[in-house]
Amino acid sequence: MELLKSTVEKIEDLDQGLMTKAQERLDSLTKPPGSLGKLEDIAIKLAGINGEIYPKVDQKVHVVMAGDHGVVAEGVSTVPQEVTTQMVYNFLNEGAAINVLAQQVGAEVKIVDIGVASEIEAEGLLVKKIKSGTDNLALGPAMSKKEAIASIEAGIEVAEDLIAQGANLIGTGEMGIGNTTPSSAILAVMTDYSLDEVVGYGTGISEEQLAKKKELIAQSIELNQPQADDGIDVLAKVGGLEIGGMAGVMLGAAANRVPVMVDGLISGAAGLIAQSLEPQVVKYLISSHQSVEPGHLKIYDLLGLEPMLNLDMRLGEGTGAVLGMELVEAATRIISEMATFEEAQVKANNIGKNNL
Hints:
By secondary structure, this protein is an alpha/beta fold. It contains 15 helices and six strands. Helices cover 49% and strands 9% of the residues.
């Protein structure tokens, strides 16, 4: 608990002065003011995060938190639980979508076993295992409060280690069969949305399975009585170890003034947990894409974020977060490499708002 407490206490507001200077720099470039839209917003946000007008994201690292879920025994997924372990090996062998996309954008991938049901021994795997999968949240709490805190602190440790090695942009992704169920449960508990509004098809379940999934989530909330204003309580009762791990990464990065990419529904649920522990953490988060999961856009609304991409993706792994890294780097290059009106000897009054 001490690590979590000290980390939260370190998270500060963004540097408003540097954000103003970044805005002035962007307005001096050879383009109509604001014409690069969200790229300019990102550049300004990055200046506030790391205190530099010319921010760099040249050491991108993507973290995939892997953990299993006891609720899978209730049939909430079409995919068997052992696929979590199989996919971890696939990640380590660089055969998954996340590996391909990370290589394209120049990001290093780190796989963390924070709660896989089986024991994995493989080179390159970061082992932060809290327990071998959560308990069945439909029958009782997913984990103890102590385990929930441990999962968050494991994520903080991962973030701090990566930042110490030079990481200046961190992505959050996950692997855990059945994890849209706890993510939807977290969203349902922490908002006024109905289950019909936040529960989706996950890996492609049938209408019958979807109805059962909603029933199980309702059952788990009624049974466990998670307290909506207590993120640790919510995580412990209806959450997941990988969700706690990603929340920890977000908190740890924010405490060290490093931006974090948010991915889909599960990563977004981690953002809600992190936000409940320290609201300022949201200022260090950068949204990537909008998942087809119905609750995802609602999470962005709660976090005050807006997705950059909408590609009808629902794979997970952090694939959207990694794709978003390319746009974040583009924003840094715009503010750093474009010429100003004075440098290019272009008269600013000749440039309209919509064209050159």
